[in-house]
Design brief:
Layout (H helix, E strand, L loop, with lengths): L9 E4 L7 E2 L10 H4 L4 E8 L5 E9 L2 E10 L13 E5 L7 E3 L5 E3 L14
Antiparallel strand pairs: 1-6, 2-5, 3-4, 3-6, 4-5, 7-8
């Protein structure tokens, strides 16, 4: 199984609880997880549209199901959120804790702000 991150992948769900999420179809102008990610792992974010509950994690996609395999951060002390009734947005994201970037001084750093040695091979 590959790990895929893609732009403009967003669906809704009305799933409750802490288990797997049944995806309800793409929001207009976006792709489904099945189209944008396939049967692979990805970073995801879920938030209750009319509330304060949210979660960011790693999940496995299979058809119209997102299995929440690892919660990275959440409104529930970084544990799985027990989502209540209501419509939730589910989308691909890039968690800040997983990013390495070049800062304003051209230093490569990770999300914790520490230096990062980067080796890069470019095939020409």
């Amino acid at each position: 199984m590959a790990f895929i991150i893609n732009d403009r992948v967003r669906e809704t769900t009305t799933t409750t609880g802490t288990g797997a999420i049944t995806l309800g179809g793409a929001v207009t102008g976006y792709e489904t997880f099945a189209t944008g990610v396939g049967t692979n792992d990805t970073y995801y974010a879920i938030h209750l549209q009319d509330g304060a509950d949210w979660e960011v994690g790693i999940g496995a996609i299979s058809g119209t199901t997102l299995t929440r395999t690892q919660v990275l951060t959440s409104s529930n002390s970084d544990a799985a959120v027990n989502f209540t009734a209501g419509t939730k947005d589910v989308f691909c994201t890039m968690p800040a804790s997983k990013v390495a970037y070049i800062d304003n001084n051209d230093n490569t750093v990770n999300a914790a702000g520490t230096g990062l040695a980067v080796a890069m091979a470019i095939a020409l």
